[in-house]
Amino acid sequence: MENYSNIEEKYPDFDLFWMERLQLFHALDGENKEHMLNPEGDIIYSLPAKDSSETYWTNLTHSSWDKQETDFNRQLAYWIEAKLSYAVPKPQQAYSIYSYKNNRLVRLLDNALILKAAPVSPQKIVVQLATDKDRPLEGTTIGLYDASTNEYKELLSTNYHENPFDIHPVFGQTAMVSVLTQIEERSGREQFWLYKDNGERLLDFEITIGQGSESTYFEPTKKGMGITYKMLETPIKLLSGFYHATYQVCNVLVDTEGNCYGDFYYIAGRVPSSVGKSATRYPKYFDKKILCLSLPEDEKQPPYLVIVNEDGSKTLTSYECPWIFFNMSAALVKDKAMFGRTAIVVLDKDNLVRLIDLNGNEIENTYPIKFENLMVNYAKQF
To answer: DSSP class of residue 155?
Structure first.
């Protein structure tokens, strides 16, 4: 940017970031207040100052500014301003969306009362709009707004909810959006429809939060495999201490095209992290395969190990693998020089520890070991 050095001289205490699509600088001044500057160095927007009754922030305020978020922010066609009013009896939030078009500041959706807004892609925003500005906490609509084309696509009309949607990033600079549809009376669990960024529903069933409060997640790769969660019609009661006594939400292996690869008791993976490359892989692959546990048919049958192959086919074994929950490193033999292939420790119906490969076959010339507890490293004993 040719004027960068001139603007730095004009505002020596500003931390500047060039937003390529908007052709604006985002700036933080010495007091950490946000501004937008045009290429000539004129301040065209400043975040309002907070006081005792109101506070403000934007979608850039709490950005992590890691590489992925920095690339995303650089391509934004808008920015979102949020205002929290400390009203009595309950604080209220309102949102405004801005852009810069034809060398002027433009407020988008300026005739609507925006109750919630969040970025979905550099062009699109998911918004919650009040259907009646005088009674904003009654009826609302949830929709996708395109800041580049000024088009709004309604997804759902619903009652007001404080947190009506969630964002699920996928490969590239876009995301899925889950929209709250109902709160299940029996369990109190929230249920959602999952949408693509074009407004199409991804799945033909409502999703929910996992048994352990996990959220839907897609791996950030072109393959786009992900794990979501679905309420069971009838909870499963399990007798074994390895598992939940009452299990009511299953794991579902899906991809970003809407393909489902099965309902499972558990899918091996790890909680995503923005630090490091391998830490963001979820589901977790083992030789291009995903390890899962099956849904039991009744309380007497435990979840058995299922191996999902790269083509989506499944190998159902007759073994348990409780190490899958927390201690897979103690259950895997990755050194293929030892047995000619990757091997995994499992538990048979007689409570004996065995060693199988990732095709479900027992490793030749190995002998079962009596099971003691999950903390024993059986992989080193074969």
So the answer is: E
Nearest alpha-carbon partner for 311 in 225, 231, 246: 225
Kindly calculate the radius of gyration of the chain based on its CA atoms and give it in whole angstroms: 25
| DSSP structure class, residue 328 | G
Whole-angstrom Cα distance, residue 37 to residue 3?
11
Distance (Å, whole) CA 205 – CA 259: 12
Q: Are strands 190-195 and 175-183 parallel, antiparallel or unpaired?
A: antiparallel
Evaluate whether 319 touches 331 at the Cβ level (below 8 Å). Answer: no
pLDDT for 1 equals 59
How far is residue 280's CA from residue 234's CA, in Å, rounded to a whole number?
Answer: 33
Q: Quick count: other Cβ atoms within 10 Å of Cβ 220?
A: 16
Answer whether the bond into residue 89 is a cis peptide, omega within 30°: yes
Residue 204's pLDDT band, with cuts at 50, 70 and 90, is very high
Calculate the alpha carbon distances from 190 to 30, 66, 166 in Å. Answer: 43, 31, 12
**CA-based max dimension of the chain:** 77
Q: What pTM was computed for the model? A: 0.90
Band of the pLDDT at 282, cuts 50, 70, 90?
low
Residue of 224, 230, 212, 205 whose CA lies nearest to 283: 224
Residues 232-238 have a mean pLDDT of 90
Q: How far apart are CA 7 and CA 342, in angstroms?
A: 58
Contact 269, 227 (CB under 8 A): yes
Which of the four pLDDT bands, split at 50, 70 and 90, describes residue 184?
Answer: confident
For 348, half-sphere exposure in the C-beta direction (CA atoms, 13 angstrom radius) is 13
Contact between 75 and 21 (Cβ < 8 Å): yes
Distance, in Å, from the CA atom of 240 to the CA atom of 218, rounded to the nearest integer, reads 31
CA 210 to chain centre: 12
The pLDDT tens digits for 102-118 are: 999 999 999 999 999 99
Grouping H, G, I as helix, E, B as strand and the rest as coil, residue 325 is helix
Contact 271, 281 (CB under 8 A): no
> What are phi and psi for residue 221, nearest 5 degrees?
-135, 170
- Measured on CA atoms in the order 9, 10, 13, 16, is the torsion positive or negative? negative
User: How does pLDDT run across 7-64, given as a tens digit for each residue?
Assistant: 888 999 999 999 999 999 999 998 889 999 999 999 999 999 998 889 999 999 998 8
